[in-house]
């Protein structure tokens, strides 16, 4: 067994484990398929006596009894077919449902670094397309294997019993067919993998276009996007054609091989000794059986490849499920922290990237203080703010909260201590009220909600909407302006009452007018907490207890507004520059 075959076997075993809870449904499906195939064989085995006794011997009684028999047989066949299809689909849909649920939950538990590396489109396509592929291909191949496999074997046994001389030819062609099948399935496995990857690209590309629709329109990117998609789309089609071509060629080859067997039978029958011993019924039945075997044989040829396709899909799903989730080994439960934060010689590079992003970052924020981070874009401010909730693991150094190293804290308790308002506000397709209270397990009183909505100046625009706070905003809040979205995010943070607050350019989407309006809300928000504020407007920063100036991942200056101005360094320059433009 080769390595890849061993892996396939493992994947199949793992997939089978998903079927175990539904084993009775599976058993019923198997019985249905067996019954269906055996009834067909039984029906054909009655053909010789129908011809020999009924037609040749002109037995009218026999012929009168045959119609009833035919109808009964077909009723039973229908019942078996229904049981098989229904049960197999029942099991299959359950397996798809389980896999989808697991993927969904796993995506949520994967670290931020995983999501940095994978596009949303690719991940969505696994939940929707790949899981469905697993169901379709495996259930189809299973039913072909059982139903057609039993049918073909049954016919073979029957033919050998009727005339082993005529049927012996099958022993010769079987190995030839096996060789063709094995060649075909290798090629199929490769092509299926390509198709699945290509499908992921189709989704990724579409997703990119839909997300960046406005940018494309304003920068005239239609042509570029059109061509990019055309390439990917065409690649997917080509793979599909290759798959179909392989299937068609293999089917034709097998049928030609089978025609030799048929020709051989007719030739053999021409010998006088053979003619003596063969009845018309037997001969007709053997020839008819051979013809009837062509379709199931064709399906059996591709059954392995079909199954391989399902396995390829399963493998890609399992690969995601095997991705390590966020390390949550900390046992310390942080509760009611005061909010003393300390960074000690923190070095950091993003996982999978060589470039070091933070060098030797050390600073402290005492409980209740406001620390402002300033510096050019790309200097590492956002990175610092995403290390605090442990979205990423440090390369070296320590971060402590109230003297407790955050590595030893459980993730949920750590993240419960902070509210983060970032540049990119994520809103869910729900009411404004539910977006504000998002993630809170305890119910929130209406007064409290109104209070924060008022303070964050959400009420101001919500009152003009048809249902006030209960207005449903579209997906990701598309019907709201950037400033309105940020006010909702601020209300969300206000409601949370966490001891630590991180504001990452939280007011960047606001115009001066709205910023002035919510300045009071922000001041309210900052009160009584430890705050890490990243702001692009220096006016927000002046009041900070400590200002940290960053450049290319390093802290180059630290101090209060007056101290830094007196030092006449980078901060002083920045200040003068902005002071000049704002006047
Ligand atoms: P700032 O917030 O100060 O503008 P960032 O902390 O976002 O800067 O970025 C600091 C550096 O880290 C930049 O050079 C940026 O390219 C890099 N960086 C930011 N996010 C990632 C990421 N998810 N993966 C890899 N590199 C990143
Ligand atoms: Mg940033």
Task: Please specify the SSE layout and strand pairing.
Elements: H1 3-19, H2 23-45, H3 47-56, H4 60-109, H5 112-117, H6 120-162, H7 164-167, H8 169-211, H9 213-219, H10 222-269, H11 272-277, H12 280-321, E1 341-349, E2 356-365, E3 370-375, H13 381-387, E4 396-401, E5 404-405, H14 411-416, E6 418-421, H15 432-436, H16 446-455, H17 459-462, H18 482-496, E7 500-504, H19 512-526, E8 530-534, H20 538-541, E9 546-551, E10 554-559, H21 561-567, H22 570-582
Parallel strand pairs: 3-8, 3-9, 6-7, 7-8
Antiparallel strand pairs: 1-2, 1-4, 4-5, 9-10
Helix pairs in contact: 1-12, 2-4, 2-6, 3-4, 3-12, 4-6, 6-8, 6-12, 8-10, 8-12, 10-12, 16-18, 18-19
The chain binds adenosine-5'-diphosphate (ADP) and magnesium ion.
Residues 381-382 line the site of magnesium ion.
Overall average residue pLDDT: 87
- From the 3D coordinates, which CATH architecture of one domain would you assign? Up-down Bundle
CATH top level label of one domain: Mainly Alpha
Number of helical stretches of at least 4 residues:
22
Fraction of helical residues: 55-70%
The total strand number stands at 10
Strand arrangement within the widest β-sheet reads: 6-7-8-3-9-10
Give the distinct bound molecules: adenosine-5'-diphosphate, magnesium ion
> Looking at CATH, which topology of one domain would you report?
ABC transporter transmembrane region fold
What is the overall shape? elongated
Tell me the strand percentage band.
5-15%
InterPro entries: AAA+_ATPase, ABC1_TM_dom, ABC1_TM_sf, ABC_transporter-like_ATP-bd, ABC_transporter-like_CS, ABC_transpr_lipidA, P-loop_NTPase, Type_1_exporter
Keywords: ATP-binding, Cell membrane, Lipid transport, Membrane, Nucleotide-binding, Translocase, Transmembrane, Transmembrane helix, Transport
Pfam families: ABC_membrane, ABC_tran
GO molecular function: ABC-type oligopeptide transporter activity; ATP binding; ATP hydrolysis activity; ATPase-coupled lipid transmembrane transporter activity
